[in-house]
Design brief:
By secondary structure, this protein is mostly helical. Helices cover 62% and strands 9% of the residues. The protein has two domains: 74 residues, Arc Repressor Mutant, subunit A; 47 residues, no CATH class. Strands 1-3-2 form a three-stranded antiparallel sheet. Helix 7 crosses helix 8. It is globular, with a radius of gyration of 15 Å.
């Protein structure tokens, strides 16, 4: 682990998950529950393989994500969020709401944002239960 810039909780948190690629990996795992390396590469943002490998390793080292062997292919692994990663759901929800307020919202996200705005706490609770497999 690298030396922290400061003991500020915001600074320390951003060092773990605050770059755009890490947040997009976390987003994909929240949306799909589990992803393979190849699935991350297929995202519309087109992450480079070296950056993806680096970010996955960093998130693994910081216990935000976990990996397990793929049940059907010994050459693949499946990534998922840990409890620590699942606890980022409210932050991702707030980023979505901020983006909806100040930026354009893609058509495929409109329905999700309506559900969030209708009952944010219920949305967060449901998302966490889904990610925990309940």
């Amino acid at each position: 682990m690298s030396k922290k810039r400061s003991d500020c909780p915001i600074s320390s948190s951003l060092e773990i998950w605050g770059d755009k690629w890490s947040l997009l990996i976390i987003r994909d795992l929240m949306l799909h529950k589990e992803c393979t390396y190849g699935a991350f590469l297929k995202a519309e943002e087109k992450i480079a393989t070296n950056i993806l490998a680096s970010r996955l390793q960093h998130l693994l080292e910081n216990s935000i994500i976990d990996k397990k062997d793929h049940p059907e292919n010994k050459l693949k692994v499946i990534y998922s969020l840990t409890e620590k990663g699942i606890d980022l759901v409210p932050i991702i929800v707030e980023i979505n709401l901020w983006g909806d307020k100040y930026l354009s919202t893609p058509p495929d996200k409109v329905e999700m944002l309506k559900r969030i705005k209708k009952d944010k706490e219920k949305f967060i609770e449901t998302a966490k239960a889904y990610l925990k497999g309940k």
